[in-house]
Amino acid sequence: MSLALSLGRRGLGRCWPNPAVGCVIVNNGRIIGRGVTAKGGRPHAEVIALSQAGGMARGGVAYVSLEPCAHHGQTPPCTDALIKAGVSRVVAPLTDDDPRVSGKGFAQLRAAGVQVTTGVLADQAVLAHKGFFLKVTQGRPMVTLKLATSFDGRIATANGESQWITGPKARRWVHAMRGTHDAVMVGGGTARADNPSLTVRDLGVQHQPVRVVVSRKLDIPTHSILAETARDIPIWICHGTDADPDVCRKWADLGARLFPCDLIGRQLDVASVLQNLGNAGLTRVFCEGGGALAASLLNAGLVDELVGFTAGLALGAEGRPGLGAMGIDALNDAPRFHLIDTQNIGGDVMHRWGRI
After folding, report:
1. CA-to-CA distance for 196 and 265, rounded, in angstroms?
2. Domains of the chain with bracketed CATH
3. Distance in angstroms (rounded) separating the CA atoms of residues 128 and 36
4. 161 annotated active-site
5. 92: left (phi over 0), alpha (psi -120 to 50) or beta
6. Which is catalytic among the residues 46, 67, 288, 305?
7. Is the peptide bond between 16 and the residue preceding it cis, with omega within 30 degrees of 0?
8. Which letter does DSSP use for residue 50 in this model?
């Protein structure tokens, strides 16, 4: 099961809107097939593993990192494939939250005489499938918020110099994290100030995440890198319902996909932003700021994982803070996270936190 979960994690960022599932088929103590959900979500991991195993799957055991699907979608159910292949046992960590599957896959397997074992490494599977489960149960993707700051929490000097606070190994690590998410998201201010490409680079990665910009008025330069590459790598823009229609048309003509989102007062409602992204199929979003967007997500309780990269330099009070104003007067009102992991990445400290 540990191998199945590891295989599944290789598919993160590639197979949305489907979950990233891994499957390992064993017979007589020997691995005869393995698979991970393919890019775009099909074929499923079980089908790939069974194809490798061929006739040797009969009487074998299938270790699957999530309950096999039991419904007819664009492809037949994986339960049918497992039953037809003649596996004697299926081991899975937990039930799929998708109501089209939930419990039905296990029930179909048992009805066909296949032994089913559940609960194996379930805690790891819950983490691996968090984004998919959130999309199913809450209609929104999982959000990872990344902040790269000085020791005193600044993202730039007073005059805006920010390249580079953290070192090359930390930046490479961030690129790897981008690759495990369906989308990379920034606010309009970051898009204007940094002119980013928001791509995964220098890692030999073939796929690219969707690039999402959150900008109420859609006031992003059309001579930017994002605009110039919109037809090559998807760019989605979440804007206010009051954005200028002419500007919207201009971005649509460039190849961008536009999502009108609700407002709260004069600000975009980040819950509406995430609902739109979830409706479009995204399960995992990697937010890289800026400060106002990050603060809004934290205030709304919509950050599921917080990743910090802290450098050993201090910029002082005049430096630009990593977070915008949050209106917090009491410590009890501040969002808190629990520490998951900490590592030395090329002299910078990476610390990863989960929601309490």
Report:
1. 28
2. 2-130 (3.40.140.10), 139-355 (3.40.430.10)
3. 13
4. no
5. beta
6. 46
7. no
8. H
- pLDDT surpassing 80 at residue 157: yes
Q: At what angle do helices 270-279 and 130-138 cross, to 10 degrees?
A: 100
Q: What is the pLDDT, as a whole number, of residue 205? A: 82
Strand, helix or coil for residue 167: coil
For residue range 268-310, what is the model confidence (pLDDT) as tens digits? 999 999 999 999 999 999 999 889 999 999 999 999 999 999 9
Instruction: Please report the pLDDT score of residue 309 as a whole number.
Output: 97
Query: How confident is the model at residue 290, as a pLDDT?
Result: 86
Q: What is the largest CA-CA distance in the chain?
A: 69
pTM as predicted:
0.94
How large is the angle between the packed helices 104-111 and 78-85, nearest 10 degrees?
20
Q: Cα–Cα distances in Å, from 188 out to 3, 61, 80, 212?
A: 40, 50, 47, 10
Phi, psi of 51 (to 5 degrees): -65, -40
Spatial CA neighbour of 124 closest among 340, 342, 343, 319: 340
Averaged pLDDT, 255-267? 95
β-pairing verdict for 22-27 and 61-64: antiparallel
Handedness of CA 339, 284, 43, 86 (dihedral sign): positive
Q: For the chain, count helices (H), then strands (E).
A: 12, 18
Tokens of 227: 């605009």
- Residues 228, 234, 239: CA angle, nearest 5 degrees: 85
Q: In 3D, which of 70, 75, 60 has the Cα closest to residue 23?
A: 60
Question: How far apart, in whole angstroms, are the C-alpha atoms of residue 225 and residue 194?
Answer: 10
DSSP 26: E
| Cβ atoms within 10 Å of 190's Cβ, excluding its own | 23
